[in-house]
Design brief:
CATH architecture of the largest domain: 3-Layer(aba) Sandwich
Largest sheet: 6 strands, mixed
Helix content: 40-55%
Distance between the termini: 17 Å
Order of helices and strands: EHEHEEHEEEHEHHHHH
Structural class: alpha/beta
Bound molecules: zinc ion
Strand order of the largest sheet: 2-1-3-8-4-5
Shape: globular
Number of helices: 9
Number of strands: 8
Amino acid sequence: MKKYRITLDAGHYADYNPSTVLKGYWESRRMWALCEMLAEELLKYGFEVNKTRTDEEKDLDVEDRGRAARGSDLFVSLHSNACDTESVDYVCVFGAYDDLNGSWELGGRLAAAVSECMGCTGGYVKTRRGRRGEYYGVLRGAREVECPLYYIIEHSFHTNLRASKWLMDDSNLRKLARVEAAVIAAHFGVLYVAGQVKGDVNGNGVLDARDVAMIKRAVLGTLTLNDEQLKIADVDDDGRITAKDYAMAKRAFLGTHKL
Ligand SMILES: [Zn+2]
């Protein structure tokens, strides 16, 4: 089966766009957290996940972030919105202005699912055309590198107290990540495969620090892995567990290398 590649973009960096109604809410921080969780959930389906940035504190030009979607099947930029009316509480997904590759279909499903998950008043697909094609730089960049489907998801409004409070809860973000991953997987016809993430020796669905530590111990001979774990730990697929597997798993965990 084809391995689909998805590029995720946490909309902003460091402390950016505070909520006007809830102290401590930053659009940048919450969407970074959601981006990490969505990456984890997508990996469980076997997607290849690419992120536009690996350092939460560092910015990258909007068009360059879009261009990071080169070679990807899907680009998603994660945001919460702002407006002058505190009561506004809906989800909006920006898709291609000309419905490129049927963009509005998946956009509509994402909008509806996110709205339902968040308990918002609705979810809608919107478009915005500018002088140079897409109005938004991230979408313009993604289109430029011919990523077939690209979206901005506005997870309601951080000018709304209910939505801001909801997004401040990590367990809600996890639900959101699962819902978004499920909609994306359904679109690509990908089924959930548990425990099949490369390097995920402890089988919790993600490659994390514990897995890296286990692979290191396996290489050193201080930990014995079962046959299934040996296959998963052998990230370079050469039939044995060596220092190279440890190095690759470590780099994958740090986000500097993709398995
Ligand atoms: Zn934003």
